[in-house]
Amino acid sequence: MDTEAVKIGAKNVDVSALMAEIRAEVARKASEGVYTDLRVALAEKTNLAQLKDQDGFFTLYLESLREAVAIDINDFPIVERRRAFSPLLVKLKKSIWNLLKFYTYRLWSQQNQVNSMMLALAEELDDRYRRRIDALEERVRDLESKRDIKP
Known about the structure:
Elements: H1 15-32, H2 38-45, H3 47-50, H4 54-68, H5 86-149
């Protein structure tokens, strides 16, 4: 049985060497911290496997949402990689950012509010349905125990 998710085939292509190189590069970048939020990536990677365990799957996504709900609205450093006119371009970019900052902050803060409300809704629905399921399971246990007592 072939376990590879992607099959690559072409003349003069060493597929195993190519896949080994890709895996090594991903491992290197992960160890360097390039992939900073691996929890969401892990949730996506294990999506199909976690479908068997709905509680674990949903808990993992709720944890991911809690960690990623807020957009960082702090200032960021403005740099210029091109050498020619670098100081002038940085000043121009900073001027544009200062003009647009007010509007951007408003949008980001509104998005943070919406994200927080959506997370609160998801958590409330999860709690509500868990309580309902627990009550129903308790009711079933009571009914089964009464049935066992009476013939």
